[in-house]
Amino acid sequence: MNSAEGLVEEAKGLIAEATKRGVILRVLGGVAIRYHCPSASQPPLARHIADMDLFGLSKQSTAIRKVFADLSYSPAERFNALHGNKRLMFFEPTTQGKTDVFLDFFDMCHKFDFRNRLEAEKFSISLSDLLMTKLQVVEIEERDYKDIVCILMDHKLGDSDAEDMINQNYIAGICSDDWGVYKSFTQNLGKTAGYVEQVNLKDVQKKAVKEQIRILGEAIDRAPKSSRWKFRSLMGERMSWYEEPEAPKTIKFAEE
């Protein structure tokens, strides 16, 4: 099985080859966290990374497939035929490690349109978008807590997509138009503050992360809310505010 460092290097190779061809590929998930966050490589926040997730554009689907084919990756033929309009899957030729390529939209508990966001970073989706993919998880797990803490510990909050910065205004804007996203994000920020107290971090680190959570939470609450947000807020939790993501199906090389 590939190491986290090996997956980062594999991702760099894929993105470099795609970039030469004018194809946009960006990393998300655990590999992106490991690349951006020094704290993700050391206890207590280090975690196992099983495979690699990338993000691309559906209009470049054919070119994406060509990149992987020319690098000797094996496509999950049946899966790609069924889901290729929104997701592709490939296997690395030596390790048979799995790579998922999500297209256009990140669609789990909540749906985010990343089509116009992929130029913010050259290796991964932006830190702000990366954080959102974690804060949107309703049935949040320890790996998600760890990733959220790593991002908030290792990067500053700001008002732009500048390198190594979390754009709090962008995140607040997303929350201000969708009460469901607001509910999940603020709920998980609160839960993460509780997690920080339980994990074996230095007091100064705990304080710093909790301060980041406070600042981001205040930015989210302060942002003017849309009429759609206000109308949906009247129903509150009486109506589900998120989608149940499809249970992940384990697909192995030559079994797709």
Can you walk me through this structure?
- With 256 residues, this protein is of the alpha/beta class.
- It has one domain.
- The chain is 47% helix and 13% strand.
- The protein is built from ten helices and nine strands.
- Strands 1-2-5-4-3 form a five-stranded mixed β-sheet. The protein has a two-stranded antiparallel sheet with strand order 6-7.
- A hairpin with a 6-residue loop joins β4 and β5.
- α7 crosses α9 and α8 runs antiparallel to α9.
- The protein is globular and about 50 Å long.
- The model has no long low-confidence stretch (mean pLDDT 95).
Keywords, separated by commas or semicolons:
256 residues; 13% strand; 10 helices
Layout: helices, strands, pairs:
Blueprint: H1 4-20, E1 26-28, H2 29-36, E2 52-56, H3 61-70, E3 74-75, H4 77-83, E4 87-91, E5 98-103, E6 105-107, E7 111-113, H5 127-135, H6 142-154, E8 156-158, E9 165-167, H7 168-177, H8 179-198, H9 203-222, H10 227-233
Parallel strand pairs: 2-5, 8-9
Antiparallel strand pairs: 1-2, 3-4, 4-5, 6-7
Helix pairs in contact: 1-2, 5-6, 7-8, 7-9, 8-9
Unreliable stretches covering 5 or more consecutive residues: none
Q: Which structural category fits the helices and strands?
A: alpha/beta
Secondary-structure element pattern, one letter each:
HEHEHEHEEEEHHEEHHHH
Overall mean pLDDT: 95
- Biggest β-sheet strands, sense, barrel: 5 strands, mixed
Radius of gyration: 18 Å
Instruction: Give the overall shape, derived from the CA principal axes.
Output: globular
End-to-end distance: 19 Å
Q: Please report the total strand number as a whole number.
A: 9
Which band does the percent of strand residues land in?
A: 5-15%
Strand order of the largest sheet: 1-2-5-4-3
Count of discrete domains? 1
Q: Count of DSSP helices?
A: 10
Indicate the percent of residues in helices. Answer: 40-55%
